[in-house]
Amino acid sequence: MNNAFGLGFDNDELLNQRANIYLHLSRYAEARGDARKAIALNPEYCDSYVSLAQAQAKLGDVEDFYRNVETALRKRCEVWDYTQQIGLSDFRNQPRFKKLLAQFRK
After folding, report:
1. Is the pLDDT of residue 95 over 80?
2. Measured distance CA(68)–CA(52) in Å, rounded
3. In terms of CB atoms within 10 Å, which of 14, 19, 33, 77 comes out highest?
4. From CA 58, how far away is CA 64, in angstroms rounded?
5. Do 54 and 83 meet the contact criterion of CB atoms below 8 Å apart?
6. Calpha distance 33→81 (Å, rounded)
């Protein structure tokens, strides 16, 4: 997989796309790493925070999951459109998640 993205290590969107591929392959630690790299390159790209939240959910880091979802929402990322996705779907019925989303739907 590294060869396909060999030119993209300095591109936040490509790193985030690879993070999403890793999520679908259940390679959550690698997804987390790429999402973190993407955020370091571009802290304003909200989709990377969603990817990081997804990975953290699957890795069992609930507090970091919520921290990254909230960051994505503050950056105007529409996370509620993705509640069927890996990691996010694990929390879609949780009162804390519903409350967080409701705050940003106003």
Report:
1. yes
2. 7
3. 19
4. 11
5. no
6. 24
* CA–CA distance, 74 with 38 (Å, rounded to integer): 17
State the Cα–Cα distance between residues 90 and 57, nearest whole angstrom: 8
Query: b/e for 79-93, b at 16 or more Cβ within 10 A?
Result: bbebeebbbbebbee
Contact of 91 with 79, CB cutoff 8 Å: no
Model pLDDT for residues 16-27, shown as the tens digit of each residue: 999 999 999 999
The structural domains of the chain, ordered by start, are: 3-105 (1.25.40.10)
For residues 52 and 65, give the distance between their C-alpha atoms in angstroms, rounded to a whole number.
Answer: 7
